[in-house]
Amino acid sequence: MYEVKLPQTSDDSIESMIVFWHKSVGDTIKKGEILVEVQTEKAVSEIAAEEDGILKEILIPRGEVARGGETLATIESVSEKKEGNQALNPSFGQRKPNMNGVQNKSQFVRVLPRIRRLARDLGVNLSSVSGTGINGQITENDVRNAVHQKQDSEAFITPFNEIRKTIAKRMSDSLMTSAQLTETAWADVTELDRKRTASEKNFSWNDIVLYAVIKSLKQHSNVNIHVIGEEIRRYPSIHLGVAVDTEEGLFVPVIHHADRLSLTQLREMAHQLIEKTKNHQLSTEEQSGSTFTVTNLGSLGIQFFTPIINKPEGAILGVGQIESDIIMKDEQVFERKRLPLSLTFDHRAIDGAPAARFLQTVCQTLQHPEIIFEEMPV
Fold first, then answer.
1. Which residues are catalytic?
2. Fewer CB atoms < 10 Å away: N or C end of the chain?
3. Predicted confidence (pLDDT) per residue in 319-343, tens digit
4. What is the DSSP string of 322-376?
5. Distance from the Cα of residue 137 to its chain's centroid
6. What is the value of pTM for the model shown?
7. Long-range contacts: 324-333, Cβ < 8 Å, 24+?
8. Looking at the predicted structure, is the pLDDT value of residue 376 above 80?
9. Domains of the chain by range and CATH?
10. How open is the CA angle 333-334-338, to the nearest 5 degrees?
11. Residues 16-55 pLDDT 10s
């Protein structure tokens, strides 16, 4: 008995695929006869029998891969076969059917080992894949496309409803007709967090951020704008849009003349509009005319992100989740609270430095509780 092994190469990591067994289990083998055809990514080669015998077992069937030195099959010598089995098996030497040696040519597809491994990993039946490579060979892209086609056939398709169509159109138009850039910054809200906790009025972080944005926009009117065609329209009044997520989609109710409101009045107005949004009670006027928008994903655990401008506005501020941070000060370790802010602006109308100065003002405003909790006259 001797073993038919895959020749060892200098690169042990190279795998060879069994392309075709020229003999089946039970066949008589003559020394020098081709037993099996194997293929690496570089070449196709043949392995011949080293002596006469009977093919006893095929260990690596067609289509599977093996490494150098691995046993592919075993061959029993003629003398061993005669001594052990000739008296009991008068049909010695005749070809016996064996499923391990059967070659199903209609199902087998000849591909490189790496392509076969990829198909096996992705669960793709190669016999169902149409090759687009040279001479119809199957490529990696063919296998991956077959996965996508399978997924598409299993997907549950939901057409856009009217609200989703409107959102999709507005988002696409915004990106295609403006030069959007996002700047980010951390706002230190340690003291503000303490002041807010001590307050009896239970202001939410969203209330406070909206109020800080209004105060900052009053100092940077070049951000409180509309960009229409090749015109920049700067507005003296601040009409603040507040992005609200609902089951039907994203809506942006507008707090008109937000610059005239105190923090308490702003909170009441914002909460009213948010409730009306969720109950589908917004009027057309309450959904239009915003000059700047704030979108808050902090409750969902998001930090920095890239909000898309609500056209025709010139900028939008994204608010993330507050987190604790450790810093060194005067050789001592302190814990602080910080808030991530993301400002997206239309670079056609607002340059990077003015946008950064506005974002800096928002951060500084949030850093000073006395500014936030100073009630403004109506």
1. 347, 351
2. C
3. 999 999 888 888 888 899 999 999 9
4. -EEEEEEETTEEEEEEEEEEEEEEETTTS-HHHHHHHHHHHHHHHH-HHHHTSPP
5. 30
6. 0.62
7. none
8. no
9. 1-107 (2.40.50.100), 109-157 (4.10.320.10), 162-372 (3.30.559.10)
10. 135
11. 878 888 888 888 988 888 889 887 766 678 888 888 899 9
